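Retro notes, structure queue

What went well: the backlog is down to a handful. What didn't: a couple of records were mislabeled last round, so from now on we paste the full input next to the output in the thread. Example, using Serine/threonine-protein phosphatase 2A activator from Leptidea sinapis:
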Amino acid sequence: MIQSENVIGDGAKSEKEISPLPLNHRFLEPQRAVKTITDMAIWEKSEAYMEYTGFIATLNEAIKGKPLSVDCKISPSVTKLVEMLEKIDKLIDEFPPIDQPQRFGNTAFKDWLAKLKLNATQYLQDALDQKLHLAIPEIKIYLEESFGNATRIDYGTGHEMSFIMFLCCIYKIGCLNTDDNVATVFLIFNKYLSIARRLQQTYRMEPAGSHGVWSLDDYQFVPFIWGSSQFIDQAKVHPPGKFLDDDIIEKFSNEYMFLSCIKYIKEVKKGPFAEHSNQLWSISAVASWYKINQGLIKMYKKEVLAKFPVIQHVLFGSLLPIRRFPIQH
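Corresponding output:
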């Protein structure tokens, strides 16, 4: 069992590395645990909730004010995880969309996801040190759930959450540590984001839930949080409202995740921005990136992490347990 002092609290900054697990740690296949609305209270007091929100806050802090091209440490573990994602990306080439009468939800996605699940164990064996292979049955489920739903052929914030939980587990087993924080967002998560976008476009995936009501661009949320942190204390896009300017987007979208998100929205949606992306339009009036960043974290907790339709699909195991977070005295 992980000692409570190694758990990153909600919104806390972790300066020390999360201790590797004890030798006798028992991994579990993750299961759903939030089955009714009343279970939401258990989730919001759970270790998993504290670990997850703390993980987002820690990485948010690590990338503050930094462009994607910043010179950051790239460990062998980061390189291997990026290579794994490159294999997942290339797998899309093997399953081109098929001709079908319905416009959305190309059924070739089901075949792609089935192949990913078939390969997932091998991918993780290649990416992780031999001594970490016992964790694979637990962490691979989070990876498999990160790319969309095969039945509905949709993608949303719950799938994005599954990938961030996968990353959180990768830290907890000791594969990555605090030195990898910047590279985790800029190399690993950014590569994941490009795969998610490619899947959305290739297979015409539907937004999960009530057509994107809980996300900022129908599909994603966290890249807006981390992307807004990149702009704190720098003057490239100031005042923040400039993020809507086409010349700013063109100039800086390769350096800043927030702008790459805006660029993607403008490519896939037609009509006035204020109409198709009203939540983002309203953000453009906020005076500082710090306020935008903090506001988005609060909004994420309220509009994603507190919504039963999202959390009912979340999986809990030994690394992200549903048990109550220990209160420290």
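Agreed that this is the format going forward. Reviewer comment attached to the example: The first helix runs from residue 40 to 44.
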